[in-house]
Design brief:
three-stranded antiparallel sheet; Rossmann fold; six-stranded parallel sheet; 17 helices; elongated; formyl-coa transferase, domain 3
């Protein structure tokens, strides 16, 4: 943001009862935009702090710009502290099983009875209905929602390579919160927002559902699909390197042929339009693959970039740390690692993919250590040092 200009959600307080990815993503979006987000962790700390493998990056990625308070909701005194904290909130976000928050008096109905301006974001596996009792994971809804079918080869359903539903489900929850904040400014009342993994996944494959409705033909899995564009594929080129190349219009096809010296293909009437080229892909693509083997990926990058044609190297996630565009535009920012063997060290994390007033929304507050802000937040609620020590003694807080 420009100097002295406030972030859009500055002054907003969010209390977050979340874990894993979906709920924390919702809170992170609000936090990055300036909200004070208080993460309520169990006494043992958020489980994602200690995950291995593909879960190792969850906590530092999705919990920047937040505070941490450790409260034992199983304890009556701890649940009371959580309710007192929520009474100070503009927004409460949670992503536990349906009914889990009711037993602590932390559900929407209980909290809004005394705080009618409260906006309550409930992030679930399914919206209310026949499936809402099921336990959902990103992979579960990808399988049942058609995304794994579309991603894998025929007969080999494959989940997408990142937590697409968790992340987007959290984003849609945050969008709902932003809409509710605008409406609260008009009516003075809050409301409950619900976002869910399964419905998010269905939204993602909605284009394929309508493809079937319009054409009467079921969408093929992506590796086996009939592309809308004739040249839109990964090519193996010289030295076994790979690169994605595309020409999605007749003008781009003409340029493609010109810059690669394929005048004969440009003049071939079989390839005179995009739809004609699509119908001839079984003939055209083997010819293109053979000719492109004469080029290195680096040579094609130079040619396509100069010509303004779509192309992409095949990058691995770890290679993005050195991406010149991300580094030049501030797309990555240092965050503190809070747990594990590298606790206290820093790593670069991806920021939200938009700017406000020409600036990326950065890291104002490091991902918190477990319970880092417990004492300060309890003191804000009027507790003395002796009160806080008593709550620790009875394991209500930590």
């Amino acid at each position: 943001m420009t100097p002295n200009k406030k972030l859009p959600l500055e002054g907003l307080r969010v209390v977050e009862f979340t874990h894993m990815v979906m709920g924390p993503t919702c809170g992170m979006v609000l936090a990055d935009m300036g909200a004070e987000v208080i993460k309520v962790e169990p006494i043992e700390g958020d489980r994602t702090r200690h995950l291995l493998g593909s879960g190792a990056g969850f906590f530092p990625m999705f919990n920047r710009n937040k505070k941490s308070i450790k409260i034992n909701l199983q304890s009556p005194e701890g649940a009371e502290m959580a309710r007192r904290l929520c009474a100070t909130a503009d927004v409460v976000a949670e992503n536990f099983k349906p009914g889990a928050m009711v037993k602590y008096g932390l559900d929407h109905a209980s909290l809004s009875a005394t705080n009618p301006k409260l906006i309550y974001a409930s992030l679930k596996g399914f919206l209310p209905g026949p499936y809402d009792h099921r336990t959902a994971l990103d992979e579960v809804v990808q399988m049942m929602g058609g995304l794994a079918y579309m991603t894998g080869r025929p007969g080999d359903p494959l989940r997408a390579g990142t937590s697409v539903n968790d992340i987007m489900g959290g984003m849609f929850g945050a969008i709902g919160v932003l809409g509710a904040l605008i409406q609260r400014g008009i009516t003075g009342r809050g409301q409950e927002i619900q976002s869910a993994l399964f419905e998010n996944n269905v939204f993602l494959v909605g284009q394929h559902m309508l493809q079937y409705a319009i054409t009467g033909k079921a969408a093929e899995p992506m590796p086996n699909r009939i592309s809308a564009w004739a040249v839109y594929d990964v090519f193996t080129v010289k030295n076994g390197e790979q690169i994605f190349l595309a020409a999605v219009s007749d003008a781009q096809w003409a340029t493609f042929c010109d810059v690669l010296g394929f005048a004969d293909l440009k003049a071939d009437p079989r390839y005179g339009s995009n739809n004609a080229r699509v119908s001839q892909r079984n003939v055209m693509m083997p010819e293109l693959r053979s000719r492109l083997e004469a080029f290195t990926a680096a040579e094609l990058t130079i040619i396509f970039e100069k010509a303004g044609l779509p192309f992409a190297p095949i990058a691995k996630p770890e290679e993005l740390f050195d991406d010149p565009h991300l580094n030049a535009t501030g797309g990555l920012a240092d965050v503190r690692l809070t747990d594990g063997p590298r606790a206290g060290q820093t790593a670069r994390a991806a920021l939200l993919p938009f700017t406000m007033d020409g600036q990326r929304l950065g890291v104002r507050q490091e991902p918190p250590f477990q319970g880092e802000n417990t004492d300060a937040l309890l003191a804000e609620l009027g507790l003395t040092a002796q009160d806080i020590q008593h709550l620790r003694t009875i394991r209500a807080v930590a």
